[in-house]
What we know:
- The chain is of the alpha+beta class and 189 residues long.
- The chain has a single domain, classed as Endonuclease Chain A (Endonuclease, Chain A).
- The chain has helices at residues 14-30, 49-59, 139-155, 169-174, and strands at 8-10, 39-43, 68-72, 92-95, 105-110, 114-120, 132-135, 157-158.
- Helix 2 links the parallel strand 2 (39-43) and strand 3.
- Helix 1 (14-30) packs across helix 2.
- It starts with 7 loop residues before the first strand and ends in a 15-residue tail after the last helix.
Amino acid sequence: MRISSPSSLMTMARTDKETRLKNFVAESLAALPGTHRGATLIVRNGDSPVAHVLAAAMADGTLDPHLVRVIISDTHVEDMHTPSLRDFPLAACRVLKDPRFGAAHEQLVIGSAHVWMGDCLRRDPNKRDAFELYHRADPATQRLANISFERMWAMATPVKALKSDRLAPEIIAAGQSDDAEGMPRPHRN
C-alpha cells in the first residue's frame, strides 16, 4: 500500500518546530469528535520537541493522560526545567532499547487521521535541519502509523519512572543504580 504525498515537509529551528507542533496538536484535538483526547507517541527521548509539546498538552488538560501511550527509546537525557512525559502517572510509558529500531522515526498520532513524523530515533531531533512530516486528515497514514506503533509497543518494556534524584533506601543498600521499576535514572548535567 502506498502512502499519499505528505501535506507538508519542513526543516526549521527548534523553537519554530515546537510552535508548529503545538499548532498541529491543537488543530488535531479540535478536529476530534467528542471527548477523545488521546495520542500515541514514539519518541527518541524526553528532550525531543514533540515530547515537550505532548507533555504541555497533558499539563494544560487538552490531552487526557489516561489515553496517552508513549514509547521512549533513550531515557538518559532529560531537561529538568520543562514538563516531562514521565510527570504524568496516568500516561502509559514503555522503553524500547533495541538498537535495531534506530531507523524508526519519531511519530505522533492523534485521533483517527492526524499523524506527525520526525527524524529517526538515532538522530538528534534538535538539529536545525531536522526532518518533519505532517499528515492532516489522512486515515490511511494513521492506520499504518498505528500498526507500527502497536508492533513496537509489544516489544517495548513497560516502565514508569518518576522524575526524581532520590533513590529508595533499599536500592542504595543493595548497591544498584537503577530505579525499582527497571528504568535507569536519567542523566543529569
